[in-house]
Amino acid sequence: MKKTILFLGVLLLSTMSYAQFQISASTGYAISSAGMKLGEEVNSSRTKNTYGSYGEGVNFQIRGTYFFNDSFGADLSFGYLHGSDQTVSKVDLDTQQVDAIARARAFGASASVVYKFTNNIYGRFGALIKVGGKTEAVVSSTSVFSDAEATYIGLPSGSYSETNYVEDFHGVFPLGFVAALGYKYDLNESISLFVEAEYYGISLKRKDSEIQEFNTDFFLADGTLAAEGVYTIDNLPDGYDIKTEYVDELAHTNTDAKELAVKVPYSSFGLNFGVTYKFKGKSKTE
Known about the structure:
This protein is mainly β. The chain has one domain (19-278): Beta Barrel (Porin). It has helices at residues 2-18, 147-153, and strands spanning 20-32, 36-43, 47-52, 57-67, 72-83, 86-92, 96-116, 121-144, 160-171, 175-186, 191-201, 203-219, 225-232, 243-247, 258-260, 263-265, 268-278. An 8-stranded antiparallel barrel has the order 1-4-5-7-8-10-11-17. The longest helix is centred in the N-terminal third of the chain and has 17 residues, at 2-18. The protein is elongated and about 80 Å long. The two termini are 29 Å apart.
């Protein structure tokens, strides 16, 4: 028993003698990896799938890393993703035009194990979660009234409606995987620059969505405004709900604002650039 305690004590002192804490700040850009279908592009001659990932875009990270010895450490990171626009629907027809995009505005965190292969090359891998944010959909559409519709609402033939709205989608907290391989260059004993390739493997299951802005105007065929604010967020047309819940099971008789849940991709592969500040720790010779 005494030998065991002595061994653990020596191991702890040895670990502490090499201990070092450092903080890093970085930014980078990620592209879609194994993109999934996000929507469709439609015109008079064809329909085309669009693929991508909401993980594509600019990211910012701040990270704290504690090295137990010369090789192994633990890493805790917090980041923000400013996602790129992803096409959800693009319709180009004589009587209808739709331009709908969606983009991520997400906060995440990760906990990783770090290993130094050499003094300059390192790797890290661990768990990733999204802790906040949204997927924001921005939709703009125009639709030409049929002659019967135009006559019913008292407008001349060729008149059309223009609708613009913003809808925020929220998801269930997911668990994913993060891995990175990096190279660092020491400027001095305290400050280093680094570049790293990073992979995120994560998908998000939708929980609910809420319309934030909504407006529909009517126009004459020549583009003259005929009626402003016909529909607003306080007066939504049929087929729209301010808030929608996403569920795993839906009765055929359901009339509530519910839809079946789907998973959307956030996986990405990116390149990060940053700077590291190392706090002075005990060295081997001390």
